[in-house]
Amino acid sequence: MHPESIKPSMTPQEAWEKLSAGNFRFVNDDTQHPNQDSARREKLISGQEPFAVIFGCSDSRLAAEIIFDVGLGDMFVVRTAGHVLDPASLGSLEFAVDILNVPLIVILGHNSCGAVTSAIKVKESGNMPKGFVRDLVEHITPSVQAAERKGITDVNGTVVEHVKQTTDRLVDLSSIIALAIEEGRTAVAGVSYHLHDGRAQLVSSLGLD
Question: Which residue from 108, 91, 112 is spatially nearest to 100, judged by alpha carbons?
Fold first, then answer.
């Protein structure tokens, strides 16, 4: 049962517009660095009410709070290499949506992604990596295959397809998140980040206007 005691601070569309505005400031070197002072720390002691949850790649160049120009308590962030879904990340996303009542999930990929590049190379060579990196590659390979079926073979095009596939897979795997989207309590935005100019491009969405 969804907790009625916590009301969303904004609609999914408003949340996306807030993130878009922050990214626009970042791209144009006009960042405000909001909610990063002692007053904000004090306010957050009693609890958190983030307006977005970011499920992004772990790449060090993809610092979510920076590229969207937000601060403490604004975003609930979950990251894995290649934004690969696993039980822990799914549980974290469900917690954000069903307990914290976050109105927007952002799937955040980026061009020149090392994890996606590895998956493409493995498919071409057949040489699997060692350890748990193999698990990452195995999870990304279906997106590589989906991209190839559309005639896409380059890394950056495959990244966009992987973001789209992750968006769809998230809803397929989580009935909790699927229900929240159906009820209009949350939405999913698939985003591809451009390393060269800092732009966060919307490439897919579920539940946004």
Answer: 91
Give the SS3 label for residue 192: strand
CA distance 42 to 109: 32
* Residue spans per domain, the chain: 12-206
- Count of H-run helices and E-run strands, the chain: 8, 5
Per the CB < 8 A criterion, the answer to whether 66 and 34 are in contact is no
Query: Regarding the domain with residue range 12-206, which homologous superfamily does it belong to in the CATH classification?
Result: Carbonic anhydrase (3.40.1050.10)
CA 92 to CA 172: how far, in whole Å?
16
pLDDT in tens, 86-110: 999 999 999 999 999 999 999 999 9
- d(C-alpha 52, C-alpha 188), whole Å: 10
